[in-house]
Structure formats: structure tokens, C-alpha cells
Amino acid sequence: MMLAGWGRYPRADCRVIMARSQADIIAAVTTEPSLIARGNGRAYGDAALNPAATLDLRRDDRFIAFDEASGVLTAAAGALLADILDCLVPRGWFPPVTPGTKFVTVGGMLAADVHGKNHHKAGTIGDHVESLDLALADGRAVRCSRDDNAPLFAATLGGMGLTGVILGARLKLQRIETAYVRQETLRARDLDAIMDLFEASRDWTYTVAWIDCLARGWDLGRALLYRGEHARNDELPARRRTAPFTPPARRTRRMPVDLPAIMLNRWSVAAFNRLFYRASRSGTAVVDYDRFFYPLDAIHEWNRLYGSGGFVQYQCVQPKAASRAGLSALLDRIAGAGAGSFLSVLKLLGPGRGMLSFPMEGYTLALDFRADSANLALLTELDAVVAAHGGRVYLAKDARIAAADFRRAYAGLDEFVAVRNAVDPERKFASLQSRRFGL
Amino acid sequence: MSAVLILGANSDIAHAIARAYAKAGRELILAARRHERLAADVVDLNMRYGVVARAVEFDALDVASHARFLDALGALPGTVISVVGFMGEQTENERDPEVASRVMRSNYIGPAAILGEAANRMAARGTGVVVGISSVAGERGRARNYVYGSAKAGFTAFLSGLRNRLHGTGVRVITVLPGYVATRMTEGMPTPGFLTAQPDEVAAAVLAAERGRRDVVYVRPIWRLVMAIIRAIPEPIFKRLHI
């Protein structure tokens, strides 16, 4: 069947195998000559596409155990973060790290080694994995952790499914007192101002900025910083204190159609961004976790916003010392082309964990582009800017970067390849992305 | 709320029904031939929804064991749902009478026998709901799946008669006609999206039917129309269509 990532670009005709249990996964790994695991399809590009066999893990989503004393959850790879939240937030637990959508699986989060708004404090999801179980190319299932099979453990976190199929994991959650976040919003008039604000907000658990990627000249880099802390019970409005873990249900909507391409253009987006910036006020608010962490999840199928041809999310990080120059070079190109999107996100990341894991200490910028030929040409220019500043692109978002750019950017690649060669010399685990990289 | 017994609990549809009932806070009994596979589901349901759930062994084809099976449950559940079914391969069903017989027994004799037995006990008690997951394939025999379809036709007729007989006894009999569902059974079949339900939709339809008053439920309403058209085609024309 025709499959794509969340960006709906590219699409590929893939043979899909549905796995319902660990036994199904082992059987597929044993019989298929080439395959890739797929979770809930939230990687944007071609990371979870393999025409020969794409192993869908969504029906192997069982919760296996939860230790109320230590906060360690054991779940099968297909377990959805949204279900984990539904089950454990009311009991006072929250994931240690969460990406910007809750519609991701445990296996997908580990394979992409996802980060969240607390990366500078908490690192990636991989930093909170006690152990993971992996089905290897030869059909064996092995447990990996910092102590057992440590190189394989490190390579699998962020390894995009190329070391094997993640069967399940033990994740250490964090305690929360309420399901709410105390949020502060601060306005920054330009790039220097927002970078200063990030530095000044280092002690906040969660920080993230929305940046107006179409602002030019003096306004280049104008942004809104959101910083947050899990709210204590006494910080809630009085009427919420008796039920701190059950916020009122949020209304969700569905994007009903593919938006015609003409609707999103430089004028409409620039007007929206200007309005959004002007209408936003600095201040403090207490918001429920859904609104703080997953604002876009309220619009199901929001990926249809970019039309039926799909879109590319471009997320890169540049080393901190080069970030000021690198960001202004990127924003200059983007604003010059008038090609940006509503959803441009800036964040200061902490140090990374190596191999194919994305984060490195520095600023990460993420924004969406409709997948048309002008934009794809622009993205190639952006690749050159990122490369020149020693940065790299996030593999979970990528649909198109060149093998040379990938190889230059990921310093841990040789180490990763050595681990992979030891467990999968035939390269059974492969995706359209890994083939594009010649991996 | 009363317990729910799900027969054929290893299927995708059964799995979705179990979660939907657990979410509603109902106690669950999951029954299947390979019941050891259900242990993980019992843990999962308990963790997610905090409900009491257990797994028991049940062989729909061993009709002689059905009474004993119900006795062993202890209290008779308030609701009994049969998701038991097996499609087989049509070409094999045509060639091999043993295989065809198995399809017929799995979709008709087994499910009808156990639901009949459960309904009799419910009638004696004066309350209860039995739900049979049948199929639109039972509404007219077609070249592509008539062995399976004929068994489902038998099951649908059985449920209809049971409902008719038990009207006024406090026992409800619900027939669910899912149409295409994205499950293991339809994997690799080219099923059009607008006619294909997700297992969750079937589960929601079962819960809604139990709470409401409907006797016969099409999971996607479009199927009522599709089947009305298919039933209306005169046989001299229908036999030429090979659908």
C-alpha cells in the first residue's frame, strides 16, 4: 500500500506486515530479507518506509508493567505515548521527555532518540531508558542497557531502526503534582534578544520559542519564548485543586480537506505571523499539559494544511558558538525566499549523546516547507549553510538530505556502522532513508 | 456493572471490544482456544483501565464442552459477545470439504451453539445481552466468499430467530454486521477505505448497541445501502457478475 511519513513526502508503495506480538516480530525478522520497523508514522520523511517490508508495530502496544515505587514503565514498542499519558498522568506520573506530539510510539521515540522542551535539563528520551529489548537480524531477542550490550544500546537510541526491531522498553517516568504547567510568555524583538532570553532561562525546566521566520531587517529573529514548570497544586486556580490530574477535556478538530496550495503563501503566512506576534502578550498562565506540550495534536491531520503534495519539516542544529551567525544566515535565506511556515520553532539544546542521536549543544531551528521544487532547492541551500557552520539535520524529520551532508554531519557515524556491522552485516534493516545515505 | 464475556478474544476486533468495555469500567472475561496468548492482554487491560480481567480457555468448535465452559465461569456474565470466526481461503474452501466444514463450523455452528446456550441461561435469569459478530457476507452468496458467507448467513438467521423467540424474556440479541474491517483477516485484500472500518469502530458500535435499542447494527451505515443494492439484483443478472 502507499505509505508516507507525517509530511506525506515522499510516498512509496510498501508491503506492510502487521505485527501483533513479539512472536510476530521475530517471525518477520527471521523470514524477511529486508525490512524496517514503523510505529505511528510520525517521522516526517522516509525513515519508516521500506517497499520490500514495512513492519507496522501499532497493534503490539501492550503495557507490561508499572512500578509505582520507582516510576519505571515497561511497555511494548507499539504503545502510544497518548495512551501512556491517559493511564499515568491521573496517577501522578509524566514522561521524562516528550516530543511535540503525543501520537508517537515508544519504539519510535527510542529509534529517533526524541528530545523535548527540557533537553537542556533532561537530555533525550534515551537518557531515561533503563533497558530495551531488541530483535536482531538473526532472530535473537536481546536486552540492551548501559550495562548489557552497551554499544548496541547506544547505537539503537537514535539509530532509526537500523540495528534491529525494538520490541519494548523500560522507561523511567517523573513524578508530577498536577497535570498543569505554569507557563511564562516573553517577547523578544530580534535574534539577539531571543538568544539572551534562552540563556537567562537556563534554570527553567521547559523552554521553547516560536520564531517569525518571515520577519526581515531589524525584526529578523523576532520571537516569543515560552518557558514552563510543572505546576504545584497550590499554583492552580482554587477550583482545580481538588482534581489536579483531570483537566477539562479539550476539544479536538480534524483538518477536513487538503488545503489548496494557493492558500499558504508568503503574504498569508507573513500576515499571520505579524498578527500572532503582536497579539501575544508577555505574562504568566497555568495551562494543562496538552496545551503546553501538544498544541497541534488538537487538530487531527494538521499535515493536510500543506496540501496534497506534502511538506518537509526542516530541523537542524548548529553548534552554540556558530549559532548566532548560522541562524541569521538561515533566517535571511528563508525570509528572502518568503518560504517559511507558521510553525517555526527555536530551542537551545544541551550536549548530545553521540552515534546517530540528533542533539548537540547549540540552537535548533525547525520549520515546515511545502514540498515544491522551489522550496526543495531552497532547502539544499540551507543544507550548505548548516554544513558550513558545523551543524546537522534531524533524521526523524529528514526526507531529502544528501548522503555526503549526512556523513559529514554525524561524527558518531563510524562508531554506529561498526556496531551495526557486528549485528546486521547483511543490512537487513533498511529504509528508503538509510539507502539514500548508502548505509 | 455486569461482566462481559468475549469469545474468540485473540482477534483484532475482540481486542478493540475488550479495550472499549474496559474503558467503560466493565469486568472482562477473555476466552479463546489459545488462551495463553491472552495473559498479556489481561495485564494490559488491568494496567490501562484498572478493571478486573481474566483469560479462560474456550473452543467454539467443541460444542459438547460449551455447557461445562459456562458452568466453570461461576456467575453467568451479563453480556456475552461472540467474535469467533474464520474465513479461510475461498479457493481452498471450494476444493477441500474438510476445510469448508471447518469454516462453516467456526462461523455458524460453534458461535450459534454457545450463544444459544448462554441465551437460554440468561432467559432463565430474566436478563442479559448476547452479541453476535456476523457479516454482511451472509446477506447474499457470492462467488468470492460463499463458503464463509453461507455460514455467516446461518449465524445471522440463528440470531434473528433467537431474538424472536426470546423477545419479552429480558434477553436481548444483537447482530453486528461489520462490513470490511482492517484486521488480520483482511490483510492484503484491496478493501476500499470508505467501506473499511477500524476495529475501534466495531467496538464502539457494539457498546452503542448494548446501551441502545438496535437489534441489527451495520458498523458503517453505508453498508446497509450497499447490501440493499446487492440483495436487489435479480438472480439471472447476479449470477453473471462474479462479485
- Tally of strands of chain B: 9
Radius of gyration of chain B: 17 Å
Span between termini of chain A? 25 Å
CATH C-level class of chain B is Alpha Beta
Mean pLDDT of chain A: 94
Spans of chain A of at least 5 consecutive residues whose pLDDT stays below 50 are none
Q: Give the CATH class of the largest domain in chain A.
A: Alpha Beta
Helical segment tally of chain A?
13
Q: Could you tell me how far the N terminus lies from the C terminus of chain B, measured between alpha carbons in angstroms?
A: 44 Å
Q: Could you please say which CATH topology of the largest domain in chain A applies here?
A: Alpha-Beta Plaits
Number of helices of chain B: 9
Strand order of the largest sheet of chain A: 17-13-15-14-20-21-19-22
Q: What CATH architecture label of the largest domain in chain A applies?
A: 2-Layer Sandwich
So, the CATH homologous superfamily of chain B? Answer: NAD(P)-binding Rossmann-like Domain
Q: Structurally, how many domains make up the residues of chain B?
A: 1
List keywords for this structure.
heterodimer, A: 439 residues, alpha+beta, Uridine Diphospho-n-acetylenolpyruvylglucosamine Reductase, domain 3, Alpha-Beta Plaits, 2 domains, 8-stranded antiparallel β-sheet, 5-stranded antiparallel β-sheet, 22 strands, B: 243 residues, Rossmann fold, 7-stranded parallel β-sheet, two-stranded parallel ribbon, globular
